[in-house]
Amino acid sequence: MSSSRSSEDAGEHYPEYYVDAEDNEEDEHDPDYEDDEEEVDEDDMEHDLFEEEDEFHDAEEGNIQFLVHVEDDDEDTGNGEGSQSPDAERLAVQQRLISLISSRRTGLLSRRQVLDFLRRSNLGHLVFGDGDDEDEDEVHFGYRRRPRGLDPDRFPKVPSEKGRELMDSGTFGANDIYSPISTKKRLARRILDRELGLGNRATRRINQGVMAQSMIPSSDAEMIINYDDNVYSGQFSDDGNFFFACVKDMKVRMYDTSNPYNWRHYKTVPFTFGSWTLTDASLSPDNRWLAYTSIQSNVCLAPTDPNDTGDPYMLSLSEHGRIGWRGGFGIFSIRFSGDGRELVAGTNANSIVVYDIESRRVLHTIEGHDDDVNAVCFADKSSPHILYSGSDDTTIKVWDRRSMGDGREAGAFVGHIEGLTYLDSKNDGRYLLSNGKDQSMKLWDLKMMYTTAKFEELNPRQHTRYSEFDYRWGRFDDSQWFPHPNDNSVVTFRGHKVLRTLIRCHFSPPGSTNSRYVYSGSHDGKVYIYNMDATIAGIVDVKATTSQARTTPRPGGSYRQFYSSGLPGWSTIVRDASWHPTAPFIAGKTNSSERTNG
Question: What is the per-residue pLDDT across 178-189, written as a single tens digit (0 to 9) for each?
Answer without folding.
Answer: 556 666 676 676
